[in-house]
């Protein structure tokens, strides 16, 4: 599952759990992005913090792991490189790339988009308020999955922290504590959001 995870929240975890159950996946690998091409001008927490919050959030689930491939690769993060690295690490495994409906909707604008469908099967998880039209995507390599409605976004979590409101129960307890310990999201949000 690829995402910025700034911070990871229960919407991500429910979506991952639903995808694993519906598609009978052995493992869900969370892959925090380095610099997401469409978020390059936005202020994003340092990759190491986003990575560690994702490790904390997934620690209790033996089927969830976190990969550093995107944060350790210099430059902009492109999914074609993510899937290339994961394929090299796991040559015998079938890869599924889980991402949100909003992200999948734009996939034809991603780098090397035609190659992507050869590297993985894409699972688009629907989130409240986003309608996904995948008629333009190859049907045999794209699936949609409705997850229980969770109107949580990382943007809302950051805004709540910035304005002194709680994020308990929107993100895992350990992530609340990590945010407090490192004083993340206390400054006004920057960039084009
Ligand atoms: N509540 C949710 N339910 C289902 N999918 C979600 C939910 N929140 C995020 N996702 C999906 O998970 C993927 C990774 O999410 P991302 O890290 O961008 O979080 P986000 O909450 O969308 O962040 P932001 O608000 O900063 O844009 C995205 O493609 C997104 O659509
Ligand atoms: O490869 C691309 O060109 C590309 C462009 C935009 C987004 N992505 C990937 O889409 C996933 C969801 O991104 P995000 O930040 O919107 O959650 C994440 O893994 C990104 O690296 C990939």
Compile the SSE list and pairings:
Layout: E1 2-3, H1 10-22, E2 28-32, H2 47-58, E3 64-66, H3 69-72, H4 79-89, E4 96-100, H5 101-104, H6 113-119, E5 121-126, E6 142-146, H7 154-162, H8 173-181
Helix pairs in contact: 2-8, 4-6
Written description of the protein model:
With 193 residues, this protein is an alpha/beta fold. It has a single domain (2-152), classed as HUPs (Rossmann fold, 3-Layer(aba) Sandwich), CATH 3.40.50. It is 36% helix and 13% strand. The chain has 8 helices and 6 strands, in the order E-H-E-H-E-H-H-E-H-H-E-E-H-H. It has a 3-stranded parallel sheet with strand order 1-2-3. Strands 4-5-6 form a 3-stranded parallel sheet. Helix 2 (47-58) runs antiparallel to helix 8 (173-181) and helix 4 packs parallel to helix 6. The structure holds adenosine-5'-triphosphate (ATP) and nicotinate mononucleotide (NCN). Nicotinate mononucleotide is lined by residues 2-4, 33, 36-39, 77-80, 99, 103, 110-111. It catalyses: nicotinate beta-D-ribonucleotide + ATP + H(+) = deamido-NAD(+) + diphosphate. InterPro entries: Cyt_trans-like, NadD/NMNAT, Rossmann-like_a/b/a_fold. Pathway: Cofactor biosynthesis; NAD(+) biosynthesis; deamido-NAD(+) from nicotinate D-ribonucleotide: step 1/1. GO terms for molecular function: ATP binding; nicotinate-nucleotide adenylyltransferase activity. Its EC number is 2.7.7.18.
Query: Which ranges are low-confidence, i.e. pLDDT below 50, for 5 or more consecutive residues?
Result: none
Measured between the Cα atoms of the first and last residue, the distance is 22 Å
Task: Summarize the helix and strand pattern as letters.
Answer: EHEHEHHEHHEEHH
Mean pLDDT: 92
Q: How many extended strands? A: 6
Shape: globular
């Amino acid at each position: 599952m690829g995402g910025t995870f700034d911070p990871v929240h229960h919407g991500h975890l429910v979506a991952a759990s639903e995808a694993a159950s519906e598609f009978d996946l052995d493992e869900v690998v969370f892959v925090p992005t380095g610099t997401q091409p469409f978020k390059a001008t936005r202020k994003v927490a340092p990759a190491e913090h986003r990575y560690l919050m994702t490790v904390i959030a997934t620690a209790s689930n033996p089927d969830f792991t976190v990969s550093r491939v995107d944060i350790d690769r210099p430059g902009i993060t492109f999914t074609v490189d993510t899937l290339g690295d994961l394929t090299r690490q796991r040559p015998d495994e079938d890869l599924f790339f889980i991402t949100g409906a909003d992200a999948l909707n734009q996939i034809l604008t991603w780098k090397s988009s035609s190659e992507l469908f050869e590297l993985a099967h894409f699972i688009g998880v629907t989130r409240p308020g986003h309608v996904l039209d995948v008629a333009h995507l190859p049907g045999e390599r794209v699936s949609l999955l409705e997850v229980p409605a969770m109107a949580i976004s990382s943007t809302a979590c950051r805004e709540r922290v910035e304005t002194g409101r709680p994020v308990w129960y929107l993100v895992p307890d350990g992530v609340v504590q990590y945010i407090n310990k490192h004083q993340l999201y206390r400054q006004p949000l920057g960039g084009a959001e």
